[in-house]
Specification:
By secondary structure, the chain is mainly alpha-helical. The chain has helices at 9-22, 37-60, 67-74, 78-84, 88-112, 120-130, 136-152, 156-182, 192-201, 205-210, 216-231.
Length: 232
């Protein structure tokens, strides 16, 4: 089963879902695909509010992340917003889930262009670069991620959800590494757990990019150099 994990449609979906999990969500696709117009309208309005939250975080920062500020950005009243989201946590969680769905769709489209089956190095590079704020959508998700982490530090339910999603996401990457070793793409002397941890450590470039410590090109160069060493 592992041998076909990258080439099957199910494997593509799992990899896409992993991206969302690394952004601290674990329910990609829930609530989608409804055919009742009233439910669709409700979902669309929630997505509009979520996008307003993204803009507040992206342009003004986490400190301005209040329901009133988000309602103002969305062009609705505070009462209207509360009709769709009863609490700040509920809105933030939905916004993170929605961001993960959008990320997963981008990943799915990109994976389809990598060949059948895609080379594991290309899959890992795509995964890592999507987690770095090197384009507008990824930057917004990265900043949402930061807001969600702060929320998790002070909310046990969010913390548990975050931790469980990260554990599952990490397991997906380790599975990919183990299969690459089994297929001869990576030297058999490499330890899958250690290599997984080193790969995920590269996502720390996000903070350095956001604070203009390094350029995105420098981060990508480091990612490529690490992957070259891993698959060399």
């Amino acid at each position: 089963m592992l041998r076909h994990s990258l080439s099957s449609p199910a494997g593509i979906r799992r990899l896409s879902r992993f991206i969302g999990q690394l952004y601290y969500v674990n329910c990609i696709g829930k609530g989608l695909g409804q055919t009742v117009p009233k439910q669709v309208d409700h979902r669309e309005r929630r997505e509009t509010i979520a996008r307003a939250l993204w803009r507040v975080v992206d342009l003004r920062g986490v400190l301005h992340l209040s329901l009133r500020e988000i309602a103002r950005e969305a062009g609705i009243s505070h009462g209207q917003l509360q009709h769709y989201f009863a609490s700040r946590q509920a809105l933030l969680t939905f916004a993170m889930d929605f961001a993960a769905e959008q990320t997963a769709q981008r990943i799915s489209r990109s994976l389809e262009e990598l060949g059948d089956p895609p080379h594991p190095r290309d899959v890992l590079r795509l995964t890592l670069t999507e987690m770095l704020p090197i384009h507008a959508d990824a930057r917004a998700t990265s900043r949402m991620n930061a807001a969600y982490v702060l929320e998790a530090l002070h909310d046990e339910k969010v913390l548990t959800r975050t931790r469980d999603a990260m554990v599952q996401g990490r397991a997906q990457i380790e599975q990919l590494i183990r299969q690459a070793i089994a297929d001869g793409h990576i030297d058999s002397t490499r330890d899958p757990a250690t290599e997984t941890n080193l790969l995920l450590a590269l996502t720390g470039f996000a903070t350095l990019i956001e604070l203009n410590v390094i350029d995105p090109e420098d981060a990508l160069k480091a990612v490529d150099q690490h992957l070259d060493g891993l698959f060399g």
